[in-house]
Structure formats: C-alpha cells, structure tokens
Amino acid sequence: ESNYAISAEEIEKIIIWHNNRKYEFISVDDMLDKSPLPSRQCIITFDDGKNNIEFALPILHKYKIPFCIYIITSKIGEEGYLTEKQLRSLSKDPLCTIGSHTHTHPYTRYLNKVQLLEEMTTSKECLEKILEKEVSHFAFPYGTVISSSYFDSRYVQQAGYKSAAFTTQIPLSSKKIYPFHIPRFDASRKNILEVL
Question: How many CA atoms lie within 13 Å of 7's alpha carbon, on the beta-carbon side?
Fold first, then answer.
C-alpha cells in the first residue's frame, strides 16, 4: 500500500472541515478564470491514476466536489491502475478533470529540456487519444522540493498545458496562487487538518 494512500473516510473529514469554514471547492478549469486564486477556494486532486479512486467517488459525488486525477500514462491498464475504459468513463463525469502526471513519473529536475518536454507531450498526447478531448492540466511527480524545479514549469506551457500543480512541501507564503505554480498539501499526512 502506498505511503500516500488516504481512505474515503479521511477524504470526507477533509471536505467537512473545509465546508465548516466556508471554503469553496472549485475545478482546475474554474481556477483558470480566477488567477490568482482567491483565498478560501481549493481544489481536490489525486496523483498517479490508481484505480482506488473508485472508493472516493461516492464521497465526492455526495458533496458535489470537483476533482482532478493526474495520470501516469505508462501505467494505464497495469495492475492497480485505471484502464482506458475507466478513464473514458471518468472523463464523462462532470465533476472529474483528467490531467497528466508525465509518461513515466521521473524526477523532472534531473531531465534535460528534450527529455522533460517528451515526458509532458507524450503523456498529453496519450490521454487525448484515449479521451478524445483536450488535456490541459499537469502535475509534477513526487511533490518534493528536490523532485522538480521552478525552472521546469516554464516548459509546461510550451508543452501545451494551461496549469501545473507543484510541490507539496513549500508552505503557502502568499495568497496569490498562479496556474503554473499551484502549491499543494499532502492530504495523507496524519495531522493534515492541524496543518491546514
């Protein structure tokens, strides 16, 4: 089991915590119309494309929460990961946005420009072929401060994306959040509600 796994019950606790504090859950597409992102708005995202997303869907639908799933395209159809059929089904869900999480899930910091663009564009093209729709959103793998660099984000736009989710390990030092540097919280940490 992944160290970053989170149960449906824990997801519900996080949603209730935010609802009680009058936060608004928005989609990544909504965010593009609100840059910089206003305070008290947040986006729920899932990385990798594991098929355990199925356990979270009833909770997300119960509260009508938009969410984004970032897919490692080389893993599609492997054991424990979403299949092409499941992705096509999810893409028809009005609450769901499907984004790219690179093709092979490398540490992007250590890739050269050609390798980085290949990871981004291969993943985008693969998903667009499966879904028959544009894929506009990207998330860097791992989320650690050493896994990617702010310099990497300049290539996201070049690869044809409209947003990029960044590290989970840099605190929110500013209320201004922009589409190509979206900071994230790791919801799997045990004290996540205390941190928030």
Answer: 4
Mean pLDDT of the chain: 85
Residues 6+ apart with CB under 8 A from 53: 46, 69, 82, 90
Crossing angle for the helix pair 8-20 and 53-62, nearest 10 degrees?
30
Contact 166, 183 (CB under 8 A): yes
Mark 19-43 as b/e (b = at least 16 C-beta within 10 Å).
eeeeeebbbbeebeeeeebeeeebb
Model confidence band, residue 144 (pLDDT cutoffs 50, 70, 90)? low
pLDDT tens, residue by residue, 67-122: 999 999 999 999 999 999 999 999 999 999 999 999 999 988 888 999 999 999 99
Position 169 confidence tier, pLDDT thresholds 50, 70, 90: very low
**Predicted local confidence at residue 1, as pLDDT:** 44
Angstrom distance (rounded) from CA 6 to CA 186:
10
